């Protein structure tokens, strides 16, 4: 089976409702998606670092327990694992505060085995952080040269708005590396002060990457591709318990679809049919909706087992 390799931050998400903590779960944008993929029977590897503390041990154990290879997660002796506080509002959307041991930002790993049509996912501030940029680029170059599909989740939080000018060269390079770019309307409002998906694609994305997905919370998902292909997809109706993992699991579902339906890099380059895009977006929306049914950041194990059965019979 094809593999999925993700690189990103690890955090402990502490979730608050009505100013009271209601749960604590290992998380991180790429991390959340890989947990869902591991639960769904996909061979997944995570590249990251943690501190040498109870939180770090919790994170690596959780990865392994959910079928994700944690051998590329480095534990640094003098670092503390980062913490994220997520405050749910009346609509169960989250606002965040992050606490990180920034003086110890570092990343040291050996490049994983990557074969043609494996999938590499990266994103968030981790993907543009100047401190670890050389290591991130080395993975992306390795992936590109070995024929992998590269999926970029922009996921740029308002907390980093003051850094936009400083990280723009890295952002543009990421767009060039990517075969698929996904971002939310909030990301692009922060980066470009724009929230019209079509204008964002034409002005900021299409020159670098032809495949663009813009998610808009509970509103329609917008897809853009080569040859002026464009389509809108309705989000699946639900009453969310938490939307914290929705975008991360949208990514996981899309990647699950790439594997389930045998979509290769050459097929992406040649252009997918509307039916193929429909199947991929259906998987993405199903995973996103499932993750909103609990305060966890990932799909449930029951849902994962159903997906595992689907991928085994495809």
Automatic annotation (TrEMBL):
Q: Which UniProt keywords apply?
A: Kinase, Transferase
**Does the record bear Kinase in its keywords?**
yes
Matching entries from CDD domains are given as:
bac_FRK (cd01167)
Q: Does the keyword Kinase apply?
A: yes
Gene3D superfamilies, per the entry: 3.40.1190.20
Tree of life domain: Bacteria
Q: What is this protein called?
A: Putative phage tail component domain protein
Native source organism of the sequence:
Hoylesella timonensis CRIS 5C-B1
């Amino acid at each position: 089976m094809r593999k999925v390799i993700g690189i990103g931050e690890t955090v402990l998400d502490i979730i608050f409702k009505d100013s009271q903590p209601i749960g604590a779960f290992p998380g991180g944008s790429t991390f959340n998606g890989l947990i869902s993929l591991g639960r769904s029977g996909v061979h997944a590897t995570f590249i990251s670092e943690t501190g040498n503390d109870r939180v770090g041990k919790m994170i690596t154990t959780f990865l392994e327990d959910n079928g994700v290879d944690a051998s590329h997660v480095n534990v640094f002796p003098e670092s503390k694992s980062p913490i994220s506080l997520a405050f749910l509002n009346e609509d169960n959307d989250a606002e965040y505060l992050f606490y990180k041991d920034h003086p110890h930002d570092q990343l040291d790993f050996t490049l994983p085995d990557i074969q043609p049509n494996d999938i590499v996912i990266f994103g968030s501030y981790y993907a543009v952080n100047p401190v670890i940029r050389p290591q991130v680029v080395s993975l992306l170059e390795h992936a590109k040269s070995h024929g992998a599909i590269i999926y970029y989740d922009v996921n740029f939080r308002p907390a980093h708005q003051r850094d936009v000018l400083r990280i723009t060269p890295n952002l543009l390079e990421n767009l060039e590396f990517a075969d698929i770019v996904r971002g939310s309307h909030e990301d692009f409002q922060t980066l470009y002060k724009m929230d019209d998906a079509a204008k964002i694609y034409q002005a900021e994305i299409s020159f670098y990457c032809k495949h663009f997905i813009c998610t808009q919370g509970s509103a329609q998902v917008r897809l853009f591709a080569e040859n002026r292909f464009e389509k809108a997809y309705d989000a699946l109706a639900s009453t969310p318990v938490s939307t914290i993992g929705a975008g991360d699991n949208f990514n996981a579902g899309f990647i699950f679809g790439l594997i389930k339906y045998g979509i290769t890099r050459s097929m992406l380059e040649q252009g997918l049919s509307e039916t193929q895009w429909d199947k991929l977006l259906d998987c993405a929306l199903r995973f996103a909706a499932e993750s909103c049914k609990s305060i966890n950041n990932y799909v449930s194990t029951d849902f994962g087992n159903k997906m595992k059965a689907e991928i085994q019979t495809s």
